Amino acid sequence: xxxxxxxxxxxxxxxxxxxxxxxxxxxxxxxxxxxxxxxxxxxxxxxxxxxxxxxxxxxxxxxxxxxxxxxxxxxxxxxxxxxxxxxxxxxxxxxxxxxxxxxxxxxxxxxxxxxxxxxxxxxxxxxxxxxxxxxxxxxxxxxxxxxxxxxxxxxxxxxxxxxxxxxxxxxxxxxxxxxxxxxxxxxxxxxxxxxxxxxxxxxxxxxxxxxxxxxxxxxxxxxxxxxxxxxxxxxxxxxxxxxxxxxxxxxxxxxxxxxxxxxxxxxxxxxxxxxxxxxxxxxxxxxxxxxxxxxxxxxxxxxxxxxxxxxxxxxxxxxxxxxxxxxxxxxxxxxxxxxxxxxxxxxxxxxxxxxxxxxxxxxxxxxxxxxxxxxxxxxxxxxxxxxxxxxxxxxxxxxxxxxxxxxxxxxxxxxxxxxxxxxxxxxxxxxxxxxxxxxxxxxxxxxxxxxxxxxxxxxxxxxxxxxxxxxxxxxxxxxxxxxxxxxxxxxxxxxxxxxxxxxxxxxxxxxxxxxxxxxxxxxxxxxxxxxxxxxxxxxx
Amino acid sequence: xxxxxxxxxxxxxxxxxxxxxxxxxxxxxxxxxxxxxxxxxxxxxxxxxxxxxxxxxxxxxxxxxxxxxxxxxxxxxxxxxxxxxxxxxxxxxxxxxxxxxxxxxxxxxxxxxxxxxxxxxxxxxxxxxxxxxxxxxxxxxxxxxxxxxxxxxxxxxxxxxxxxxxxxxxxxxxxxxxxxxxxxxxxxxxxxxxxxxxxxxxxxxxxxxxxxxxxxxxxxxxxxxxxxxxxxxxxxxxxxxxxxxxxxxxxxxxxxxxxxxxxxxxxxxxxxxxxxxxxxxxxxxxxxxxxxxxxxxxxxxxxxxxxxxxxxx
Lengths: 540, 313
Description:
The structure holds two protein chains of two kinds. In chain A, strand 7, helix 7 (186-201) and strand 8 (205-209) form a beta-alpha-beta unit. Helices cover 39% and strands 23% of the residues of chain A. The radius of gyration of chain A is 25 Å and the shape is globular. Chain B has a single domain, classed as Orthogonal Bundle (ABC transporter involved in vitamin B12 uptake, BtuC). In chain B, 77% of the residues lie in helices and 3% in strands. Chain B is built from 15 helices and four strands. In chain B, helix 2 packs parallel to helix 7 (149-172). Chain B is globular and about 55 Å long. Chain A binds chain B through residues 52-53, 73-75, 78-79, 83-86, 90-95, 99-100, 102-109, 111, 113, 115-119, 123, 126-127, 130, 145, 149, 163, 166-167, 169-170, and chain B through 165-166, 169-170, 172-178, 180-181, 183-185, 187-196, 202, 248, 313.
């Protein structure tokens, strides 16, 4: 026990109604190299934040080398010897690569103001020291050739490597790395693995978040799995992978426990020549700051279908939905909805055409009531009334408003009960219902949902999935992005599996549900023992 | 160093030219460069905006004038005391504001600027109200009273060049790296062990000291104070000077001050409406030349050097 470098004890973190971390406890020993994995929204980044900024934790305690750091501000925690990196890199774009790393060493250098202002010998000596140290660290992460370049011109992956070097410049003994491998290609990932290993060999303790299971298994000797704020597994990578709880966390539990496919039998997708291509996408690509997220995706959705998009974190599922709703501007040779070209439309015009998105994380207006949130969703209809008439009468002419509200309330009765409550005070499941209700207020023909089960208890997920089936009966076409593949595929007609920005496979939802490829898309398969794979799927 | 020498040569040439207009212009540019430089450190490098720098400037001016008049102490000493007073005020504002997130400094300093201006106008017994304060003693140097612009110019520019030198050192030092990290990502800076609120507070104090020094020098040079020059309009002008200079450019500030001062002269016929032009210019500069007018003018050669550098590597 005396070798423990970090002890996290019963830490709880809440954000509004959502429990991001729930009674999390674990120890890290000096010199360990461990990975933290978990589905979207499991609380991985929150856990790193709670260690580096312990003020975030509402209850529980965190101690470092036996000393309680629970009440320390971030910069003091760093001075004790903990440094973290961020998913976005957060490098200083206007400074050179070398200067970025030097900045990491300033706080520990004890440079005084007088010395800095008057350019005394000490200031110069410190600057030389920092520069030498920076060059050494840049060599370690393989960025020494770029030392003189502006940090802003580096690729996203290089910026995260730079952030690692910068964190090391603080002389921290414990490094917390937030998704250093996100968006890297295979070559870059192998390089990253080598860097992490060599840092580990130099005596540092490392905790890193990563989604690529092959990378994790090749580097880490210990694996922790978070799911909805709970630490559900902790052990050797090969053991954790076979843990039924982990497989369930990734693939999800059944959305309908009784397995009764209500309404499914009554639905016959129109096929053949009569099939109307409701949404047609061809060769769609999208990128963030030059980092490709989607690569030549082609997909179609027919009228009255539920189509599920499943795949691991970072596969590009959310980006695809955002591309369709034009929040992200994609490149595509075709992006048609009901025969209309969406490519040149702005995001609000897409909603007017009948395509609504329920965004990931819900994006509710927390300080407004449930009813106001719903009314906001009615904007496309309200805006058909002249603005000056709305100004004069104080209301918008909308004869079908009450009818639509009743429809949403009928789907989610809890919203009628809570209509005067502030949206910020709703529980996660109610908030998700409100988010769906708000999107439905615009009377969409195509409803797109991004991770509706995120951070929600399984029973509520089942309710929401049931509501989606009901919606399809009413003629709403649904495009559903879900990490909880099982729940999504059970209600879907067809499914697409995405991996690394490309469509890996597609087909009938039932077939996909029993396909081994899905497990591979989530948990990797490089050195996965093929003979054991079926057993795991059956075990859950 | 070359820049400091050439600046000295230019100033010497201005003095020798004997043109009152040029000499006055040089003195004004020197005086305005100080608060603008402080604002550049605060806004351009640390990312904190102050809308009340005129208040620090005004407090320095009135503070030093009143201290030397009422207590009869040497103006040099009263300048230091006034600077210390403003420093303490800045420290207090920083302590209040930087514990919270968001653009609170802009709000707090805007309020501060308005309060100080009203105080200067209304506190007749102390400041003489709108009629102003007359008989501010001039600076003296070994018994030699510095009254004309030509006499004051070397002293003001000595202070100004010292401030430029210190600011350049600061930005080049390790502290400067920490400051720029705070300016771009406070989250990252804190994770690297930088005490973000403390650093922002210190820069606010430094910035206030520069403004107070300039205000105090102005008071003893001009010999007469009225609240007019210390209103929020002057704060906006300072912002414009920093923006034109390119935000995070130490020497750009001097160019920005020169540009705005000359523009102010050209806009004299507009009277009070000049502030409209300044406001519009501020918006345009922020939108269209985020690196300042100077960079915009030098853009072509700058691109060439970049290309050349790319070719080497």
